[in-house]
Amino acid sequence: MIGAPATKPANDNRFYALDALRGLAILAMLLSSEMPFGANSLPAWMYHAQVPPPDHRFIPLPGITWVDLVFPFFLFSMGAAFPLALGRRLAAGTSPWEVAMGILKRGFLLAFFAFFVIAIRPYVLSDHPGAGIWLLALAGFAILFPILARLPGNWPATLRWAIRVVGWSAALLFLSWVRYPDGSGFKLARSDIIIVVLANMAVFGGLLWLVTRQHLVIRLGLIGLLLAIRLSNMPHPLGGWVTDLWKFSPAPWIYQLYYLQYLCIVLPGTIAGDLIVQWTSANPAIAASTSSFSSAAWSSLRRSTIALLMFALILVMLIGLKSRWVTATPLIVFAMCIIGWLLLKRPATPTEHLYRSLFNWGIYWMALGLVLESYEGGIRKDKATVSYYFVTAGLANGALIALSILIDFCKKRRGLRILIQTGQNPMIAYAGVNNFITPLLALTGAAGWLDRWADSPWRGFARGLFVTLLMAIVTSFLTRRKIFWRT
Questions:
Q1: Once rounded to an integer, what is the mean pLDDT over residues 156-175?
Q2: How far apart are CA 266 and CA 283, in angstroms?
Q3: 3-state secondary structure at position 3
Q4: How many CB atoms lie within 10 A of CB 300?
Q5: Partner residues linked to 149 by β-bridges
Q6: 486 in a structural domain
Q7: N or C terminus: which one in the chain shows less Cβ crowding within 10 Å?
Q8: In this structure, what DSSP letter does residue 150 have?
Q9: Three-class secondary structure of residue 149 per DSSP
Q10: Domain for residue 361, yes or no?
Q11: More reliable by pLDDT, 2 or 262
Q12: Which one is predicted more confidently, 124 or 286?
């Protein structure tokens, strides 16, 4: 039974599969932004399904690719983290009101990040960056550390306050001084839309979990209400108060009702997070040590088969929906779900019960998404269809199971360490690829050599993979040194 997370966490253990899922999402997001375009384009399945090569112009084609999974996987992991992070604060004695204020503060920091990270981006600062622009981009990246870095609690309060003041003052000076290619300065209309959506999800998702943390039925009802609002706004609505509400925004630069559709991914994530909290509380010994996973009743072959099945579900869904095998895909997925249900029968340990519960919810979300798949002319990320939200939420549940098996049962935590550590520090990776790695490569001359070498589609992909790996290494290094950003 979900809906009443533990009042006191059993320990401070992290569910590393959730970090790995977040790290996988952010690194895949960075990699997708480094793909070669134009004449050196890769196959269509290496890009967003609605911006296919060679022109990469928006076409409302039905289908999704792996690139279309990265953002919903990140949103799902954000939702799953709410019960863990906010529940820990509640268990420590923090009042719900104080937790709510913390949620609003996080939303403010993400909103600031959305405006500042785009303002310091090299190719926003200039159409043809030179050494001065690269150095300015590096300076902008450095400014974010005194603003967002988690400062040790044993430092004097005056020192921590002074560091924050220096950071915020530098940021305000930067925004007031800098000019862009069109001659303009700072604009509220200039923001990173991905982070704007994340800010909305952090606020609304966090607050909704807070008020429904002991009432799962109400949370599911809110998902139904969001779905009803979304379905009432087809491309040619008849009008009415729902349409008026949909279009209304007191501050369109930071909030639009449209963004709240993504709660259909975040709120399913919170259900997964509740299950993880219950698992942690059900058996402290298991939660405290990965070595205790060896006590599981299922055999190693069975666990490995479950992990492979979870990854295969993602692959089948991507291939089938992109190829528009609209009858065969649900049938194959249904058969795979039956196999998964049989493999996950008779769980004997808290961990096995967790996997079974995650899988059951994953089946539900995928089934809901597949039933709705034809409603808006086929699943799409842009503009997102309702089937997209639920299909991706279901696949995220499967990915979480597979990663957990790899980390905890198969002892692959060391091999996935770079994903885990990146997932623990995602915003550094997000900002750093444009404002640290790219400027350094340009200033050292390595960027020119890489561009000349990447003269074919797959060499271009290798270049993007190299840049992404560099950022992952830097993020992993900072995480090991306990340098985190509070977002």
A1: 97
A2: 26
A3: coil
A4: 12
A5: 485
A6: no
A7: N
A8: P
A9: strand
A10: yes
A11: 262
A12: 124
Residue ranges of the alpha helices (H) in 126-156? 131-148
Higher per-residue confidence, 376 vs 30? 30
Residue partners of 120: CB distance under 8 A and separation at least 6? 136, 137, 139, 140, 141, 143, 174, 435
Q: Which residue has the tokens 């561009």?
A: 451
Q: How far is CA 243 from CA 1, 39, 208, 252, 364, in A?
A: 37, 42, 23, 16, 29
With left for phi above 0 and alpha for psi between -120 and 50, is residue 329 left, alpha or beta? alpha
Beta bridge partners of 485: 149
Can you tell me the distance from the alpha carbon of 43 to that of 225, in angstroms, rounded to the nearest whole number?
A: 39
CA distances from 463 to 429, 438, 439, 443, 453 (A): 17, 12, 15, 17, 9
- The DSSP 8-state label assigned to residue 139 in this structure reads H
Return d(Cα 103, Cα 105) in angstroms, integer. Answer: 5
Overall average pLDDT of the 6-23 stretch: 69
At a CB cut-off of 8 Å and minimum separation 6, what does 487 contact? Answer: 106, 109, 110, 113, 148, 427
Give yes or no for a contact between 149 and 427, defined as CB atoms under 8 angstroms apart.
no
| pLDDT tens-digit map of 175-196 | 999 999 999 999 999 999 999 9
What are the tokens at 19?
A: 């970090």
**Cβ burial 79-96 (10 Å sphere, 16+ → b, else e):** bbbbbbebbeebeeeeee
Torsion of CA 483, 196, 460, 415, to 10 degrees: 40
Other Cβ atoms within 10 Å of 72 Cβ, number: 27
Residue 5: inside a domain, yes or no? no
Is residue 283 classed exposed, middle or buried when 0-12, 13-18 and 19+ CB atoms within 10 A define those classes? middle
Spatial contact of 20 and 396, defined as CB atoms under 8 Å apart: no
Instruction: Count the residues in the chain.
Output: 487
Distance CA 103, CA 297 (A): 40
Six token digits for residue 50? 């609605």
Token pair 């490569």 in the structure block, residue: 441
Whole-number Cα distances in Å, 18 to 87, 155, 336: 16, 30, 24
Distances (CA, A) of 98 to 103, 210, 282, 487: 9, 11, 27, 17
Question: Is there a domain that residue 243 lies in?
Answer: no
Half-sphere exposure of 96 (CA within 13 A, CB side): 10
> Which residue range forms the structural domain that includes residue 83?
16-234+261-480
Q: pTM of the prediction?
A: 0.93
Compute, in degrees rounded to 10, the torsion defined by CA atoms 138, 141, 143, 149. -140
Banded model confidence at residue 13, pLDDT cuts 50, 70, 90: low
Total of domains in the chain: 1
Percent of the chain with pLDDT over 90: 82
